[in-house]
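Open question from group meeting: does this chain pack into something compact, or does most of it stay loose? Before anyone orders reagents, we agreed to write out a predicted structure and look at it together. Recording both the input and the output here so the notebook holds the full record.
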Amino acid sequence: MDTNFDALVEALAPEARASGTESRLMTERELAERLGTSRATVRENLGSLEMLGMVRRTQGAGTFFTKPDASFVQFLFGLMSKFGHIDDGSVERAREMMEVAVVQEAADRADEEDVRVLRGHVEDMVRATAAGDAEAGHEADYAFHKKLFQIADNPVIEFFVDGMSLALKDVLAHKRALALDIEARAAGGGAEGPRRTDTVHTPIVDAVEAHDRSAAAAAMVEHFTLWRRITEGAAPADGR
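C-alpha cells returned:
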C-alpha cells in the first residue's frame, strides 16, 4: 500500500469507529478534496478497502463501512495455496490447534442454552447420517464447531478459524464422507447405530457442560485423532 492509501485509512478510521458498520462515507469528491488528491486515486484506494472487506460500494447509493467476514480469510488462503505458500494440510493442522484452545474457552463460558444447541447439532449429524444425507451431516458438523467459536467469544479466533473452515470446506466434506464410508464398510455395510464420526462430538459437549477445560481439550484432541485414524491412508469405496 502507498501513502495515499494510508492517508485515506487515517481519514476514515475515526469515522468508522464512531459511526459503526453500514454508515455511509463521504463522497469520493469530498474525500479527494480533504486529502488533496484526485478522485481516481480515492476510487482506486476505496477499491482496495472493498477487497479487504472494510467498505462496500453500491452504485447510485454510495460507499458504506462494513465488517470483514471469513470469506476474506478463505480468499487469502486460496491465493496463498495457489502460489504454493501453504497447503490444505497446514491450514487443517492450524485449525485443529486453534480449536483445542477454543473448546477450553467454551468450557469456561457455556451456559445451558449453548449446551442444548451443541447437543442439537450432534443429533442433527446422527440423523443426517442415518438418512444418508451427506450435505446435511456436513452442515451440522460445521455448525457444531462454529458454535464453539461463538461460545468462546473471541472475534479474532472466530474470524480466522471460520475462514480456515471455509477454505477447507470441500476437503472436510470429502473426509467426513470418507470416514463414514469406511465405518459403514467396517460394519459390513449395516446402517444400524450411530457412527463414531458423529458420536465423537458427544464427549466434547459433556466436557463443555461440566465446565472442565482439560476434559474438553482432551475430547477435542480425541476427535481429531479418531478422524485421522479412520481416514489415514484409506481410499474411497469407488477407488478414487
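Observations to bring back to the group:
Residues 234-240 have pLDDT under 50 and may be disordered.
The chain has two domains: 3-65, 71-233.
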